Amino acid sequence: MAHWAVESKAVSIRVACASFAISTTFYRYVRKLDVENAKIVDSLIQLTETNRNWGFGLCFLHLRNVKKKRLERETPAPAPAPAPLAVPAAKNETWSMDFMHDQLADGRSIRLFNVIDDFNREGLGIEVDFSLPAERVIRSLNQIIEWRGKPKRIRSDNGPEYISHLLKNWAEQQSIELAYIQPGNPQQNAYIERYNRTVRYEWLACDDFESLAEVQETATQWLWTYNNERPHMGLGGITPKQKLALHA
What we know:
The chain has helices at about 1-10, 15-20, 25-30, 35-50, 55-65, 135-150, 165-175, 190-205, 210-230, 240-245; strands spanning about 95-105, 110-115, 120-130, 155, 175-180. By secondary structure, it is α/β, with parallel strands linked by helices.
């Protein structure tokens, strides 16, 4: 407004600054961007326009890897992340399980039951159906135990399937601890929450599935890729199977 007054009304800079309660130093200030900063700004704008789902972390890593620039000074720091969950020292110490909800192309609601091993973030199973009561949860866990072995504990939220007497009795018979997170604190189940987001982003939300069989087949194929080929940032860029092999 002070610039407008000077340019349009032919008032002096001193009078314009006094009228809008600013200093003449502030009036004359011109932000300076060096060439390197300008290039970084342009790169960030291009990244966010072409990759709308990328947050600060991915943009930072991309520019660090491709441009080899130091971004800590030029770009805002990300918000501090919550303290991570403790990583188990070996496989089958702690599993995490959770449900996801979606729908088929015809609008029918479906559920996915996901189980991972917190040690190496390996996806142990994805069960798909219209309804997955406690009996189905137990059946799925038994099938995983047949080839994976028995976990010491399983972490979950307080959903009705998980707090049912059926599941509690089964866990007691199996000598498996059920570790429930506090209500309203999904960060206490952070490994499977992050896994669920990956499931949704990488395949579940990408297609209109016509049948349960189609969803289950896609889930099974993706699960193999996730465990064996997809680098995991939380594991330092290796796959779940590679981490398992390193600690065999």
